[in-house]
């Protein structure tokens, strides 16, 4: 079989011909015949073109052509490819015909095809025709009296005659030579019937016999809609195998195909989530319930080739597995397979079914809305990986915690994409913090204290139930609560504008941007857009295309942004680096202090101590200095409990102030 993704027609062309063809073509010119470019978003000089997508109905220009790289991608329907795939899809022609059209435009004569490759392609075409004849025959058998039990079974599963016709379902009679006899009667040689996987010859040289007998038949088609194999469900509960698939043939490699691939690709192109189920009936139930972009592997665990097929259809397939132990084991196998393959914009999510139910069961018992909710709530792969490494484990010793660290490191090491590896490491760090430093919530009706358990100080004892659930009005209105929000947003705006105006420094500051927790929702959206478009030649244009021009216009119109030297004079990387380093350092330092003080407020709010707000405001002065950078000595940093940098002198003052607060005193004592 050819490698996954290789068209059989390409194998019949001389080496280097396709590369020469692509080098002579302008993808912008090829696509330009079918679309109207949005000249406001496009940058012709850089080979960067935008237009409404020709593959789905839309008004905005989300279809992007990179003429220099020779690839297109639609951010709406996720269609992607090169000049050959564009001609194939828009002209509805096969690979060789698309090459012929493009070769004519490029002035390249079509080479003579390899006779052996041509012979092989012709034979595959003949086998496809054999399979199509078999599908028609099996469909006719489902209407006969012998198939009454099969029709009753399908009706019981919610598939009426119209649905059975949509899915081309058939029936293989319990006859040793049913399809064999029927196809031979049409003049098809027995050797072709065996080669198509419809019949088999016994090892002792006896007469050939049908592979499928007494089974409901599910036709399996490739991405181009050609019948290449069959799946069969036994009607006899005592059959050796409940489900049986065609064997490996010249047409069929079960590890490189997916059930319902072509219709699912079309539905996913219109914005539907790609849902991966375990079997034929699950796929049919999902599609009939409105989740039409559904596929299933073919009797095997998911393979690497099948994952690559899924990612060509959708960047983030949803794996819907049965809600039992076997389903979780299958999810874990998929995770191990996927870790080395995932990357930016290429991942997996997992929809865990209610225990004991598969998608078909859930839809029949609770309806399509319940299934759609499960898909909507699918968890990212990192969550499943975390569950796998932590569920059923105790972490009550340093050795056990170190073992968890090692398992997580080993898993993350499998990720090849360094940027994504960093994100996984950061997420695991966050999850470990939550696991080892839980903030318990108070139980209803029993009071609460902020989740720190019993806390005793000098002469005072704070026990569960003594502190109110909410901070007092004085604490809420303190300098700590309101003093830094505006300042944070100002710094966020300067950082984002500097990166957009000086994209050449983005690779150096990308990790810091990923960790920056924007307080302003608009800033958060811009940060995400910058990260998503970090490889764009024109970063500002790409971000504007993603969010609309108003987002950046609003950002750059702010006075404190406009007067920033790195924004006023873009193109000076050193100035941009200095600006970003300073703003990020102040932002991180200020928020580090703020987190520790906020925890103090949460634990102490409501104490009958009139000096509490005064003491917190004094402690906030250290926080304010962190924001201003007063007297800053960058070599004198230590770190707070949340990992934020503090100067040593600030750290001492900060701890002293918190200590006096904890002990319930009035103003801090002078030593």
From TrEMBL:
Residues 440-457, 625-637 have a biased composition (Basic and acidic residues). Binds 1 zinc ion per monomer. Its cofactor is Zn(2+). It holds the Pfam family Zn_ribbon_DnaG. One of its GO terms (biological process) is DNA replication, synthesis of primer. Keywords: DNA replication, DNA-binding, DNA-directed RNA polymerase, Magnesium, Metal-binding, Nucleotidyltransferase, Primosome, Transcription, Transferase, Zinc, Zinc-finger. A zinc finger (CHC2-type) spans 53-77. CDD domains: TOPRIM_DnaG_primases (cd03364). The keyword Transcription applies. GO terms for molecular function: DNA binding; DNA-directed RNA polymerase activity; zinc ion binding. Residues 272-356 form the Toprim domain. Residues 439-474, 625-645 are annotated as: Disordered. GO terms for cellular component: cytoplasm; DNA-directed RNA polymerase complex; primosome complex. Coiled coil: none annotated. It catalyses: ssDNA + n NTP = ssDNA/pppN(pN)n-1 hybrid + (n-1) diphosphate. Its EC number is 2.7.7.101. InterPro entries: DNA_primase_core_N_sf, DNA_primase_DnaB-bd, DNA_primase_DnaG, DNA_primase_Znf_CHC2, DnaG_bac, DNAG_N, DnaG_primase, TOPRIM_DnaG_bac. It is an enzyme of class 2 (transferase). Monomer. Interacts with DnaB. Belongs to the DnaG primase family. Contains an N-terminal zinc-binding domain, a central core domain that contains the primase activity, and a C-terminal DnaB-binding domain. RNA polymerase that catalyzes the synthesis of short RNA molecules used as primers for DNA polymerase during DNA replication. This is DNA primase. It comes from Limimaricola pyoseonensis. The lineage of its organism: Bacteria, Pseudomonadati, Pseudomonadota, Alphaproteobacteria, Rhodobacterales.
